[in-house]
Structures are given as structure tokens and as C-alpha cells.
Amino acid sequence: MSNAKTSLLKKLESNEAVIGIVGLGYVGLPLMLRYNDLGYRVLGFDIDSGKVEQLNSGKSYIEHIGSERIARASSQGFEATTNFERVSEADAIILCVPTPLNKYREPDMSFVVATADAIKPYLRAGQVVSLESTTYPGTTEEELLPRIQEGGLKAGREVFLVYSPEREDPGNPCFETRTIPKVVGGYTENCREVGIALYSKAIDMVVPVSSTRVAEMTKLLENIHRAVNIGLVNEMKIVADRMGIDIFEVVDAAATKPFGFTPYYPGPGLGGHCIPIDPFYLTWKAREYGLHTRFIELSGEVNRAMPEYVVGKLMEGLNEHGKPVKGSKVLVLGIAYKKNVDDMRESPSVEIMEILEKKGANVAYSDPHVPVFPKMREHHFELNSVDISPESLRAYDAIVIATDHDKFDYDMIEKNAVLIVDSRGKYRDFQSNVIKA
């Protein structure tokens, strides 16, 4: 056993290791809190100086993570910084940076590459680097490995390289960082052993796999499974609607089967940082091997078409009221990508808003979790959330339920809205002013 490995394992086991987390968002921040709670000293790295300033003043910018938790972490030694030279202070460096798609739906590895380039001058013997960002099989070996070895350190002997995909589910009260099993793959057996030691203190169940590629593919399979099944039920929704059948009733009935069926529910499209994006990482990589991932691509087509489908149902409803979409006042309820969170990443609600705006509608939104429309990479609205009341609802030609937050008063909405387009199955019984989309 190398001296570097022995020393690092001892530090991890005794909670004396310094944990460095790069990327302090929906993945990195909960991980920071978990290690901080265990007594590790945690350094947080982010290129966003505004985030760093907020964290160091004890404030949170993520709704389901309270500021009191950040303040407590700071009092227990947590510190955030934009100075990557301090990577040398960390014994473990966990990368939690975005991996979006570019406009051609190809992997955008710029955040991973830029982060690897930022940390590599400050790496030293006795450190472990773990990538948690979702990506295609081979990324850890192809992008990280040459960079961490560039200065002469040998992976598996002096530094240790791990891939362990994040599995955060923001706003899900049934799971937290500690209780979600953690898949860990290492570049070498020594790397895997160090990775297990890194995560076994913080996570109840660690699932070792034979390589970083297996771990990378595992995360993709998890999300492709969801994307394909959601695509299937979205397509079934369209067929059921044409036949006059309520797809939500169908799914609920099918879910009573105690074996061989898992319920997936339709919606206005896919959102979040994983499901709309990750399948295309495998699609892109498979081309290198001369393969076409037909299931993935077909489900992607179906899911990407759902915002247009919802707008089409809205237009049908407006036509029945003798109104064109151009000039109509439309209120979109819920613009986060899923219920009860403030996470806007890849939200189909925003696509619905953009389609409506292009068609000439006057678009507003209401979301108790998103009071001001945030700055986004590809979407721009200068809007604030509208407070809904019986009077305000009656002022709109149509209401689109895009995200079914629990804070909405659905009885009040149904009683006062002129027209409701329901993409989330909130209204199961017949209502004359509701169109199921």
C-alpha cells in the first residue's frame, strides 16, 4: 500500500480530511452540509462570487435548504471561496459542476474541463478527485485522468480518481443525501478503495462497481429508464385523449398491479438537470461505436413535443371561447420543473411560455417558489410572479397548470378561471372549464 493511500485513508476514517467541493448548487450544497455535520472541515469552491458571498454570510439561495443550516455550517468551519489555489488544502476534491447540452444536443463538457484545468496546478500527492457530474462513459478517463496526471502524479498511486454519480432529488422529503445509495467506481482498485472510504462515512450505503465507466453508465441507465417510460406514457396520453379516456385514471388503475408495472405519469414535458439531458450523452457517445440509440431518440422526440401539445390544447380551448391565442391573456401556473421546488433547470413551463409569447399571447406566471423569473442561459422573461385570487384569475382568458405545486388552491382556481388547461391531472372529474392536456 502506498504511503499516499495509507495517509489518505487514515484521514478519511478519522474525519481529519479536508473535503473540497467544487460547484455549490443543488448537488454540492447538500453534500457540503452532510460532511460538515460529520465534523469534517469543508471548503466550497464556486466561480460565482455572489454565491460565495451569500454562503459566507450564512445565507442560502436554494429554497429547500434553509439559511439556518448554512449559518450553522459556517460556524462549524465551512468556508466558500472562488480561489482555486486553495485546492491544495483539500484531501478530497468532489466535482459537482453542470454538464448541459449545447444547441446541437451534444454534451457540453466545458464546465468539467474548465474545472479540471483550474484544479490541476494545485493537486498534490495524497488527494482523491471524484467527479459527480452526469456524463458519458469514458469521461473520467478521457478528460480528468490526463489532466490530473499532467504534473507528474500517478493516478492510483499518488492521487486517486473516482466517479460517483450524484443522485439528488431536490424537494423529495423521503430521501436525503445520507439515505440515497452511492455508486462508486475507481480508475484503479486503489482508487475505488479510496472512493469507498470517502463516501462510506457520509452515505448509509455505498455500491462499489468495477470501473468509472460502469459508474458513468449506471447513472445514464437510471435516467434513460425514466425518460423512455415518461415518453411512453406521454404518447399514451395523446392516444387516450383522442379516444376520450383519462390517462391518469388508467395509470392509477394499472398501478394496482403488485408486480410487473411501475407507474409513470404524463406531463407538459421533461424538466430538471438529468432526465431531459442525460440520455443524449449516451446517444452521442454511441455514435462513436457506430450505434443508434433508437429508443432514447424516440422518447426524446415525444417528450420535447409535449410543450407544443399543451399549447395546442390551449388554442383549442380558446377557439371554443371565440378567442385567438394572439392577444389573449394567459397565466401559467408553476414554472419550476417539478412541484414544490424552486429549481428552474430545463423547465417545460418556460418552453410553453416562449411558444405562447411567439404566438402573440400576453403571458404571465404565478409560482410561489419562484417570485422573480431568474436569469437563465437560454430563456429571458422580465416577469414577477403574479398573486392569484378570484379577481385576478377572472382577468385571464386562460390558465395553464404546468407545475402542480401543493401551495396552489385548486378549488379556488377551478371556481374562478374562465378556462383551465390541465397538463398535470389535477382535475379528474368533468369540469366544463377544464381541458385536459
Topology record:
Blueprint: H1 3-13, E1 18-22, H2 28-37, E2 41-45, H3 49-56, H4 67-75, E3 79-81, E4 92-95, H5 110-119, E5 127-131, H6 139-148, E6 159-163, E7 182-186, H7 189-200, E8 206-209, H8 212-242, H9 247-254, H10 278-287, H11 294-304, H12 306-320, E9 329-333, H13 348-358, E10 362-366, H14 390-394, E11 398-401, H15 410-416, E12 420-422, E13 434-436
Parallel strand pairs: 1-2, 1-4, 2-3, 4-5, 5-6, 7-8, 9-10, 9-11, 11-12, 12-13
Antiparallel strand pairs: 6-7
What keywords describe this structure?
alpha/beta; 13 strands; about 425 residues; elongated; eight-stranded mixed β-sheet; Rossmann fold; single chain; five-stranded parallel β-sheet; 3 domains; N-(1-d-carboxylethyl)-l-norvaline Dehydrogenase, domain 2
What does this structure look like?
The protein has 437 residues and is an alpha/beta fold. The protein has 3 domains: 208 residues, Rossmann fold (3-Layer(aba) Sandwich), CATH 3.40.50.720; 83 residues, N-(1-d-carboxylethyl)-l-norvaline Dehydrogenase, domain 2 (Orthogonal Bundle), CATH 1.10.1040.10; 132 residues, NAD(P)-binding Rossmann-like Domain (Rossmann fold, 3-Layer(aba) Sandwich). It has 15 helices and 13 strands. The strands form 2 sheets. The protein has an 8-stranded mixed beta sheet with strand order 3-2-1-4-5-6-7-8, sandwiched between helices. Strands 10-9-11-12-13 form a 5-stranded parallel beta sheet, covered by helices on one side. Strand 11, helix 15 and strand 12 form a beta-alpha-beta unit. The longest helix is centred in the middle third of the chain and has 31 residues. It is elongated and about 75 Å long.
